[in-house]
Input
Amino acid sequence: MNGRPLRIVRLANFVAPASGGLRTALRELGRGFRVAGHEPVLVVPGARHTDRDTEQGRVITLPGPLLPGTGGYRVLTDKRRLAALLEELAPDRLEVSDRTTLRWTGRWARRARVPAVMVSHETADGVLRTWGLPENLSRRAADALNTRTAHVYARVVCTTEFAEREFVRIGARNVVRAPLGVDLTARHPALRDPGLRARYARGDEVLLVMCSRLSVEKRPGTALDALEALRRRGRRAVLVVAGDGPLRGRLERRARERGLPVTFLGHVRDRAALGALQASADVCLAPGPAETFGLAALEAMACGTPVVASASSALPELIGSAGAAAADHAQAFADAVDMLLERGEPERRDAARARAECFGWGAAVEAFLAAHDAQVPRRAGLARTVPEGVA
Output
């Protein structure tokens, strides 16, 4: 374990102003690295070049083109400029959060003798399947991609056992586990707001919330289908969707055509307002089948709201008995909502909060620093509790 402060340069693509989980993870880990005495530098794509000092450390944006049809995602495509910036920054460690377009940085790090870590934020075969590739082809393509990734990086960080499986499958031996976390102070059951709840649901209605990017791999349409199934059963339920993305227009049309009570809020920038919404819901829906962690779902649980998650994702590993896992279709999600609602409200809310309390950001920061062989100070603010089976 290196005992001196390290400059940890972190690279990420597919980060936009309306990004959710990845943006949160980058911010909280950077803040934790800085508190631990290290020097984090984050490099992301943007509309123009900027260089700012923030609470998460130095943040540099390099001009990157918009990806059509992604709702605002940009990518770092100028390899020469990024390589020159890396030479200038002279990192002690490199951390990369994109194993497709940025995988070449592993070779740069090897030539520069800089220990480099790739963070697996999604399963490659899971994402390929959500885009319609048959399972046998998606697995072969994922195995080829992951083999190259594991070869060029010193370590691959996976946030859950679920995410680790595809690397275990190819025999990779440089994989480490490091969970993400949740801000247990900013997300709390006390945020529950009866007035806010009444804005979206009457007293006899169930308030469902989905906080998700509205893109193909997140399968947001499952939430609308589950709402329709519940209402056909006689369950008075409404849905509020917090998030934006390329599928929003299509989902809004579907809700209108089917007469479904769905409110689309778009991207909610106010984190306190989003927390109040999560805390005021009865159940949070997380239908994404390729999620390897699911920060929005964990935030909802920290607010005391149980989660119904895709059984195909990593979330069942995280939510345990405090939530419910469902197959990727409407009836299964509706069944899981009904099952959770059969529990008494205090019981289900207390269980959700208790489970979320196992995932403080302090433990996540320590695990990521350990992956970098960086000094981990023993501080009261860095909680070490991690649920069995997650790390």
About this structure: The mean pLDDT is 91.
